[in-house]
Amino acid sequence: GQQVMQIPQYQHVQEGEDFTTYCNSSTTLSNIQWYKQRPGGHPVFLIQLVKSGEVKKQKRLTFQFGEAKKNSSLHITATQTTDVGTYFCAGSITNAGKSTFGDGTTLTVKP
Amino acid sequence: SAVISQKPSRDICQRGTSLTIQCQVDSQVTMMFWYRQQPGQSLTLIATANQGSEATYESGFVIDKFPISRPNLTFSTLTVSNMSPEDSSIYLCSVAGTGGKGNTEAFFGQGTRLTVV
Fold it and tell me: Are A45 and B105 an interchain contact pair (Cβ–Cβ within 8 Å)?
């Protein structure tokens, strides 16, 4: 079945440093979504990427979708303590809304 | 965006009993899903809740253990049956909707934190 791998599992950074998490799918995806889950909270939708090679930005967050639509990355520039949480990618092979989640990358930021 | 109300938010249950979790959405949605998130783990899809027909279960999940109802386009329930400590987890309801630019967005309920003792 479809597998979505995400690395690293954990990342500890000093406030102001950059952070990147990577996501790889075993199959070509129709789209990929990114979520953030704060400790004790539920996943919150951040963005969806659909097009091959797509790059989208949300303030300090940059999302990329690979040309082959099998990998993606989330990059945060100049992390802040409010960025702490677990970031999940989730890939869909159809547009039906059903997704396979990666294992997540847990980010901690030292002030 | 869709607003999802999920309850109970948490519960502690005795092994062998069953718990029904409710998910109410403030608008009609076509797709509703139930996920499980075990402690420190990622989200695993249990099933797709289909309105007016039987739910579609993912590999490793069966209807006898996780019966699901979807009586209309705004409501669904998930029952965790004959619970054991291994069922201790967070259960999340999710819906998929169309965002402002026509792309599919997913929204999650607050989750139900279940502890089986």
Answer: yes
Q: Which chain A residues are within 8 Å of B2, Cβ to Cβ?
A: none
Looking at the complex, report in whole angstroms how far the Cα of residue B18 sits from the nearest Cα belonging to chain A. 23
Burial label, B43 (beta-carbon count in 10 A; 0-12, 13-18, 19+)? buried
For residue B85, report the phi and psi dihedrals to the nearest 5 degrees.
-55, -25
Task: Give the whole-angstrom CA distance, residue A25 versus residue A29.
Answer: 7
Say what the pLDDT of residue A96 is: 61
User: Taking CA atoms, what residue in B is nearest to A101?
Assistant: B43
| Phi and psi at residue B40, to the nearest 5° | 70, 10
| Residues making up chain B, counted from first to last | 117
Burial of A84 (0-12, 13-18, 19+ CB in 10 A): middle
pLDDT tens digit string along A70-89? 999 999 999 999 999 999 99
Q: What pLDDT is recorded for position B103?
A: 61
DSSP string, chain A: ---EEEE-SEEEEETT--EEEEEEESS--SEEEEEEE-TTS--EEEEEE-STT-EEEETTEEEEE-TTSSEEEEEESS--GGG-EEEEEEEESSSSS--EE---EEEEEE-
Q: Which residues of A touch B45 (CB under 8 A)?
A: 98-101
| Three-class SS state of B85 | helix
Q: From the CA of A48, how many Å to the nearest CA of chain B?
A: 7
